[in-house]
Amino acid sequence: MTIREAQDRVDQWIKTYGVRYFNELTNMACLTEEVGELARVIARKYGEQSFKEGESQDVSEEMADVLWVLICLANQTGVDLTAALEASIEKKTTRDKDRHKANTKLKKH
Questions:
Q1: By percentage, how much of the chain surpasses pLDDT 90?
Q2: Where are the domains of the chain?
Q3: Separate counts of helices (H) and strands (E) for the chain
Q4: What is the rounded distance in angstroms from the CA atom of residue 38 to the CA atom of residue 92?
Q5: Is the pLDDT reported for residue 12 higher than 90?
Q6: Residue 19 burial (CB < 10 Å; 0-12/13-18/19+)?
């Protein structure tokens, strides 16, 4: 699935099952909540915290939830995520093409 296809599928789902998009402020709060849930799973799976009984351990599910809400925000604000990502990659390539290679902190030990 391309990013454009994902944006179209989420939009179709919202129109078919979701009644309407939550407003942008609500979706921003939802995005923050989903990022927090992803952070919790990563902190427990890869960090020093332990899982509570019955707590989700699925990183992919939490990442998909973050992506879902981000796509909702993109759709309702008219952002083409493919074009935005391509522009971001170009910006980072132009700005940082040598920066990370020269960072001694990133050299292998």
A1: 85
A2: 3-83
A3: 4, 0
A4: 25
A5: yes
A6: exposed
Q: What's the whole-model pTM score?
A: 0.90
Provide the H-helix boundaries in 18-58. 24-45
CA-wise closest residue to 77 among 31, 23, 17: 23
Long-range contacts of 53-62 (CB under 8 A, 24+ apart): 62/34, 62/37, 62/38
- Over the Cα atoms of the chain, what is R_g? 18
Euclidean distance between CA atoms 1 and 33, whole angstroms: 25
Distance CA(30)–CA(35), nearest Å, equals 9
Q: What is the pLDDT of residues 15-65, one digit of tens each?
A: 999 999 999 999 999 999 999 999 999 999 999 999 999 998 999 999 999
- Considering the segment(s) 3-83 as one domain, its CATH architecture is Orthogonal Bundle (1.10)
State the DSSP H helix or E strand holding residue 15, giving kind and residue range, or none if neither.
helix 3-17
Tokens matching residue 62? 């939490």
